[in-house]
Amino acid sequence: MAINNNQQKILTLIEHRAADIEMIDNNLLMEKAAVAMAIVKLRETLDKLEGHLKNREFQKASHVGYDDLAHHFVYVQRTLAGLQTAAYQKEGLISNIAQKAKAAYEDVAPHVDQKMQMVEKK
Question: According to a count of CB atoms within 10 Å of the terminal CB, is the N or C end of the chain lower?
């Protein structure tokens, strides 16, 4: 199947932005890993809190809740903010390519996603 001129322009623009796509892809992967690590810490703290409650150690439970749990919850929020920023960068790049190609966002996004998957496999 032949590629039409618009698709060719999209693919060419994507190739010109390959370094940007790789950077955004790496940022998304790093931010996703940070969120996963933050969730693990939050779960560990919740387990600790649950243990204190089961053992009727209410003062210790309160301390864990106000200190560790609050800290890890904020950490999850911060890592999610980083992930959101990386996702916005991707959306901005797709919008920029779409604008230059005079194409719809929906026509460009799958090609960028495919390029990102290729970068991931390196």
Answer: N
Count how many domains the chain has: 1
What's the mean pLDDT when you consider all of the chain?
92
Residue 90 within a domain:
yes
Q: Is residue 120 predicted with pLDDT exceeding 70?
A: no
Work out the average pLDDT over 26-36: 95
Domain residues for 87?
Answer: 26-110
Q: Is the dihedral of CA 116, 23, 19, 103 positive or negative?
A: positive
- Nearest C-alpha neighbor of 37 from the set 74, 71, 79, 70: 79
Amino acid residing at 28:
L
Q: What is the pLDDT of residues 68-98, one digit of tens each?
A: 999 999 999 999 999 999 999 999 999 999 9
- SS3 string of 42-110? HHHHHHHHHHHHHCCCHHHHHHHHHHHHHHHHHHHHHHHHHHHHHHHHHHHHHHHHHHHHCCCHHHHHH
60 domain-assigned: yes
